[in-house]
Structures are given as structure tokens and as C-alpha cells.
């Protein structure tokens, strides 16, 4: 029999932490050079710059490379941005070394020269002190009349605040919704991926617990409304795509992730699972909620746990494209031995998801196959830790991408007395 879906939704509260780092500063600068050494036999030079931050032990770490400007001794490089922290690690007087190279196709780039400066010097902007002599120590040691190998000039420099994931989270009173859908077969049969084994959790429960145990620590009251869908309900066998796992329509909340798991296993014994496996309805359902709060006050995460079967790929692609314009992310965890080609296609890392000629505005889907995280020794705790790390890894950047695209700035951090009751819906 085809497997169908079950699900639950979770409201997440992220409480502000005093030790969290606030926004980072981003520097934007542009440089040019004049009368660089000619390095190419049949041309001039193809110069580019390499920036290094000095370390406490006297070594240097590359922090930026400019583009190559072809066939010129007087290049003007495009403006570029770099985190101030990457440039000086908080020490404005830390030495910044810049090497000037002539690009070669075979990778054996010719060294033209170098100069040193600091973030503090850069921050003064364009002036006579930010014109640097490019020096080649070898040439200087061999030629008595050697002056320099050209000059590099700072044309412009500005610093702007770059907000982080934490900046947005610490000002949000609520973070709905994480909804999980799990395709299931007959849970009484050992062949089912949702087999209820008294001695160990099935893969669906492990995936839910792995992610849920992390996010429940950021929920203010540890109450999670949990819903299932894709089943015939007793006593009349009515098909439902949104029924509370608790069995109480007036109070769908479960206490903690353990409460969600308990309700989940209990419902497996009372409902008749029913297909087909459609992803688009739940994506569209969460998207409708996200559409009502595009001001940056809430961000939605949909978690789908699946065995790889999907019956409405065309509709799902359209739903993903629509959702990409909303404050929303989708995590898909694949369980079992099936091929997950459809899930990989939805992930959009290589090719952005499209529907009817429209491409998704952002990449909002993260897919991971659970089998890749199973510890060979059978250590479930280690397996769940590995899974949670990767499935949650892309959420901060996806949230930041939405906020930046809408020009939304973080709200002031909330004090404990300002925290309202969590908003519940779906």
C-alpha cells in the first residue's frame, strides 16, 4: 500500500542571550593602481590584489582576492565588501598586508610587489596617506635606483552594519511554525518505516527528536500544537489533512517534543493511514500563514520527513516558487533506502526550482537523506546530532536573505517582561 503523511507544527521561541554577538560591520572599498611593473612579454600585466590579515603568531591569513584586470598597468578594481572582523579581527591597528600579482593562465602568478596598511588607515578614506608604494623586496635589493613597482590608491571606503541571524531572532517574540509531515505505512508491520519498535525509535521519530530537542529549548512554554494529515479518522473513516494528534481540537498542544512523539505514536494506533503523498497542500498551508506576516516579525520553517514518494511534483514546485517570496524555509529529511531524486531537485542547490517559467526568488529548500547520518556503531544520539547540525545549518542564511531582500532591520531585543504568549495557529 502507498504510504501517506502525518505531521505536526511547532511554535519556536528564541530567547535573547546576552553573550550573543551583535551585528558585524561590513567595509566596502575600491582601489586602483598606477604604473605597475610590466610582467607579460607580449602585453602589459593582468594585475589583481590579495589581502592578508596578520595573526598573533606573525603569520598571515588570506581574507580577500580582487578580480583580475586584464592587460593594463593602471588597473581600477571593482568595489568589494569584506567583514571588518575578517580584515582586522577587532584590532583596528592590526597589520593588513596586500600583495599585487600579475595573473598567469597556468597559475604561476608573477609577484609584482606588496604594501602594508591597517583598517584604521583605510577608514580615513581617500587621502594622500592612502596612496601606497608597491615594493618588491628582491628588486629593491638588486637595483640601487629602484624606487617602487607602482602605487596603489584607495579610491573610496565606507562601513555599514551587517545584521546577523541573532540580531533578528533576539527581537522576535515568537517564531512559528515548524510543521513535520511523515509518510507512513502500516506501523504494526516490521516492514514499515514507521514500525513501532519497543526497543528503539524508528527513523521518523529519530529525525523529529533530533531537530525538536534543539528547538524546544527556545520555546517559552514548551507547548507544541501537533497535527497529522493524510488519514481516515474514526469512527466514520472521514479523510482529514489536519487533525490534532492529541485528539482534542480545542487543545492541539503537546508538552515538549516527548509529548509530540507520544501523541504521534498514539495516533498511529487509532487512525487509518491514507494516501496519496502530496507535498503541495502543506507547503501552501504554511505559506498562507507566512503571507500574513512579511514585516519581519515572524519566520516560518516547514520540516517534511519523507520516504521519497511524492505524488504532486508539479504542484509542489509551484508551491516552492511561491513560498520563496515569503518569510519561510523548508527542510526535507529523507528516510529509508529509496532514491531521492525528486527531493534533490527540490533542494535547488545546483539549479533553482522553477515552475511555469518562474524561478524561485531564493533557495529555501534544504534536503538531507537520514541514512547519510546513521552512525555505523548504531549510536542513535550521534546520528541525531549529525542530522540536526546539517538540517538547521542553512536556516540563518535563508532568514537573513529574506530580511535583506525586503530591507527589514532587526527589532530591539525583548526583555523578559515584554514576552507575550506564543501565537498558535495551523
From TrEMBL:
Belongs to the copine family. It comes from Esox lucius. The keyword Metal-binding applies. The lineage of its organism: Eukaryota, Metazoa, Chordata, Craniata, Vertebrata. Keywords: Calcium, Metal-binding, Repeat. InterPro entries: C2_dom, C2_domain_sf, C2B_Copine, Copine, Copine_C, vWFA_dom_sf. The keyword Metal-binding applies. One of its GO terms (biological process) is cellular response to calcium ion. This is C2 domain-containing protein. Pfam families: C2, Copine.
Amino acid at each position: 500500500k502507498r504510504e501517506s503523511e502525518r505531521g505536526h507544527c511547532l511554535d519556536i521561541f528564541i530567547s535573547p542571550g546576552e553573550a550573543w554577538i551583535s551585528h558585524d560591520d561590513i567595509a566596502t572599498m575600491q582601489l586602483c593602481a598606477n604604473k605597475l611593473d610590466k610582467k607579460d612579454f607580449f602585453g602589459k600585466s593582468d594585475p589583481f590584489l590579495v589581502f592578508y590579515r596578520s595573526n598573533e603568531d606573525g603569520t598571515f591569513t588570506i581574507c580577500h582576492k580582487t578580480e583580475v584586470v586584464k592587460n593594463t598597468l593602471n588597473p581600477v578594481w571593482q568595489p568589494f565588501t569584506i567583514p571588518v572582523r575578517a580584515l582586522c579581527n577587532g584590532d583596528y591597528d592590526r597589520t593588513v598586508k596586500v600583495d599585487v600579482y600579475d595573473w598567469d593562465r597556468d597559475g604561476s602568478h608573477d609577484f609584482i610587489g606588496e604594501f602594508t596598511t591597517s583598517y584604521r588607515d583605510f577608514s580615513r578614506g581617500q587621502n594622500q596617506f592612502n596612496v601606497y608604494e608597491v615594493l618588491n623586496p628582491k628588486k629593491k635589493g638588486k637595483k640601487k635606483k629602484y624606487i617602487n613597482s607602482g602605487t596603489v590608491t584607495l579610491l573610496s571606503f565606507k562601513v555599514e552594519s551587517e545584521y546577523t541571524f541573532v540580531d533578528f531572532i533576539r527581537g522576535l517574540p515568537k517564531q512559528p511554525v515548524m510543521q513535520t509531515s511523515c509518510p507512513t505505512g502500516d506501523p504494526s508491520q516490521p516492514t514499515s518505516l514507521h514500525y513501532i519498535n519497543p526497543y528503539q525509535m524508528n527513523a521518523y521519530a529519530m529525525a523529529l527528536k533530533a531537530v525538536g530537542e534543539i528547538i524546544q529549548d527556545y520555546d517559552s512554554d514548551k507547548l507544541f500544537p501537533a497535527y497529522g494529515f493524510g488519514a481516515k479518522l474514526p469512527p466514520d473513516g472521514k479523510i482529514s489533512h489536519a487533525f490534532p494528534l492529541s485528539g482534542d481540537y480545542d487543545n492541539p498542544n503537546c508538552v515538549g517534543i516527548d509529548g509530540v512523539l507520544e501523541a504521534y505514536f498514539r495516533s498511529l494506533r487509532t487512525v487509518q493511514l491514507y494516501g496519496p503523498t502530496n507535498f503541495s497542500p502543506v507547503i501552501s498551508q504554511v505559506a498562507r500563514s507566512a503571507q500574513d506576516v512579511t514585516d519581519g516579525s515572524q519566520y516560518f520553517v516547514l520540516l517534511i520527513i519523507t520516504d521519497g514518494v511524492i505524488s504532486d511534483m508539479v504542484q509542489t514546485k509551484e508551491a516552492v516558487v511561491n513560498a520563496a517570496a515569503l518569510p519561510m524555509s523548508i527542510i526535507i529529511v529523507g528516510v529509508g533506502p529509496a532514491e531521492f531524486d525528486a527531493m534533490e531537485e527540490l533542494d535547488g542547490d545546483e539549479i533553482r526550482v522553477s515552475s511555469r517559467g518562474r524561478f524561485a526568488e531564493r533557495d529555501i529548500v534544504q534536503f538531507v537523506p537520514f541514512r547519510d547520518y546513521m552512525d555505523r556503531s548504531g549510536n542513535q544520539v550521534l546520528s541525531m546530532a549529525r542530522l540536526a547540525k546539517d538540517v538547521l545549518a542553512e536556516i540563518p542564511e535563508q532568514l537573513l536573505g529574506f530580511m535583506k531582500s525586503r530591507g527589514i532591520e532587526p527589532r530591539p531585543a525583548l526583555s523578559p517582561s515584554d514576552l507575550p504568549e506564543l501565537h498558535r495557529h495551523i
